[in-house]
Amino acid sequence: MNNAVGIDVGGTFTDLAAIEALGTVVTRKVLSTPADQSVGVAAALDAFGALPGSVARIAHGTTVVTNLLLERRGARVVLCATSGATDLLELRRQERASLYDLSVHHAAPLVAVGDVVAVGERIEPEGVRIPLTEAEIARVVAEVVARSPEVVVVSLLHAYADGTHEQRLAQALLLALPGRQVVCAHQVLPEIREYERTAPAVAEGYARPAVARYLARLGETVQERGHPAPSVMTSGGGMRTAAEAAREAAALALSGPAGGVVGAAAVLRAAGYDRALTIDIGGTSADAGLILDGEPLVESGGEVAGVPIALPRVLVDTVSAGGGSIGWIDDGGALRVGPRSAGAMPGPAAFGRGGTQPTVTDANLVLGRIVAHRMSGGVALDVDRARRAIETLAQALGASTERTAGAMLNIADAEMARALRRVSVDRGVDPRSCVLMAFGGGGPLHACALADLIGATRVLVPPHAGVLSALGLAMAPERREAAASVMQRTSAIDAERVHSLAAALAAQVEGAVRAWTARTRYVGQGYELDVPFTPGEDGSAIAAHFAERHRVRYGFVLEREVEVVAVRHTASAQAEIVRFARHGTPTWNSQALVDDGSPCNAEVAGEAVITLPDATLFVASDWTARAMALGGWMLERAP
After folding, report:
1. Max CA-CA distance within the chain?
2. Which of 15, 222, 357, 368 could form a disulfide with 467 if both were Cys (CB 3.0 to 4.6 A apart)?
């Protein structure tokens, strides 16, 4: 066999999907090991049982960077910033964390105030105003060395246009601090806006040592089993080798969720659709995404754990609403669900691993929406434990057990529906025009309720729904990117200029499939849109692409000049080909009590529970589920 293997580490489960030589899929699911994710990866590989030499490629989705940012466990970073601009991380954009609640504050910067070193230099759009002298370099290096940093980040004003000062200072720091990492902001993100450029550069430095250690440990674990070193999914939906990923840690901030949307897009195209909202519900969180024209929507920007990461990312809006989300009562006596999660240990009460607090999984069990006695991953389910946990919460509320369980699900569904609206309505996309693709261990359970909340009338539950993120990782091609600052009006950009920009970027990366995008805006506008272009076009063509996208996204266009802020080139390998063959025979029943052994070509009217090989599908009343030829299920709401 010549398997391509994808391994996705979630908060509760670690999922494996292997694409065999003929395109068929084998899946495994094991409990995650939060203290060291590589242990769970090894357990998944052992459960798969591949012989040494039988695996051609391992693709990995990890939450290592996300966890570092959430838990603030990264490296000690010293930041070198232009004198007069040393408070960027504190000032941010001067917006409030909460518009109406003055007690809410932004997350603390990743660099302590005392670890920011001012650099006496200044480059302005017109050129060098204050030169960076050798004496100033020596002074700055001495100050940095005195602080004994693990990583140094150099972010100087306007280095996106001229990075010479950053490079000179970085070279001196590398000589003075052998073996330490030095990160230049213009190499992480060569675009305007100093805060948005500095923040991801600091995140890169903050996460890089831990990511390098983790990937080295993971590589050893995998290679001990006779398999190749893993590649790693980036936030933008492409793969990097482990060596590359160790040098581009900030690009891994949304590594895992991106794999799910990539896999969902492949299934969507195979089913004959081109537009979908996606919801990936795991044990700890739920991730909402958007697919347009058959491809995941990729944007720049967004935050992870309060840290802006202005790098290309597959659009994902994450909320703390998963199977392990805990139900509780706030100080006002109101029922809440999340953000705390039972995780893998101890897990929901139903897992019988010491958990006693009521979770969304327990609520689904109590309401009969999960009928299996054992989840994929080898976890036995105890309905009595689940009921006792919900009963404790119900007594505190003065309500019945079933009503409390139903209320917990309604609260979780409302939170996820808000995320689905944010990724669609905020971008001018009507949710009613989309298929809702529901996957992850909990996605098919909540699919009908979420569709009702956003007005969707079709739900697609893909084959291998419970491990689709891992399958997306196995399918994702290697992808590399290069970017350059432009800052020119389209009226001044001719076809020769476009061609030279495209050629310069193409020379930096290799790949069989190439694409170019321009970050464009109206002159004076405070935000950009990414528009595709080809090397043979000129500035007027790019302006026309921008106007059309602006009209679709915002409903209007302006009689104003357009400017190109930056251009980006993506080079990808060919993706893996998958046969979405049905795996296993699903069973269903209308009372959620009796295994009826329905054939694979079943059409099931709700209310019904369909037990899938790696998830459970709940068909609500007024909904009908039909098994698809490619595997998976299509659900439609009655008119």
Report:
1. 81
2. 15
Determine the pLDDT at residue 519. 94
Torsion angle, CA of 362/366/370/374, rounded to 10 degrees? 60
DSSP state of 47: H
Q: What Cα–Cα distance (Å) separates residue 165 from each residue in 123, 156, 185, 482? A: 8, 8, 11, 21
SS3 399: coil
How, if at all, do strands 55-61 and 231-233 pair? parallel
Task: Count, in order, helices (H) and strands (E) of the chain.
Answer: 16, 36
As given in the structure block, the two tokens for residue 369 are 């929406």
Identity of the amino acid at 475: M
Pick from 563, 558, 498: which is nearest to 533 by CA? 498
Across the strands, what pairs with 18?
Answer: 5, 26
CB 361 within 8 A of CB 344: no
Contacts of 159 (CB under 8 A, 6+ apart): 123, 165, 166, 184, 185, 186, 197
- pLDDT tens string 487-528: 999 999 999 999 999 999 999 988 888 999 999 999 999 889
CA angle at residue 273 from 272 to 277, to 5 degrees? 150
DSSP state string for 277-299: EEEEE-SS-EEEEEEETTEE-EE
Cα-Cα-Cα-Cα dihedral of 157, 160, 166, 171, to 10°? Answer: 170
Amino acid at 613: P
pLDDT band at 589 (very low <50, low <70, confident <90, very high): very low
- Which among 592, 606, 596 is positioned nearest to 383, based on CA atoms? 592
**Could you give the CA distance from residue 300 to residue 196 in angstroms, rounded to a whole number?**
11
Question: H helices within 480-607, ranges in order?
Answer: 495-506, 539-554
CA dihedral 340, 615, 425, 431 (to 10 degrees): -150
Please state, in angstroms and rounded to a whole number, the distance separating the CA atoms of residues 219 and 230.
6
Distance CA 422, CA 289 (A): 10
Sign of CA dihedral 44, 48, 54, 59: negative
For residue 252, give the 3-state DSSP assignment: helix
pLDDT at 426: 87
Q: DSSP secondary-structure letter at 216?
A: H
Residue with tokens 């001719």: 494
Nearest to 292 by CA among 490, 128, 431: 431
Q: Rounded CA gap, 49 and 42, in Å?
A: 11
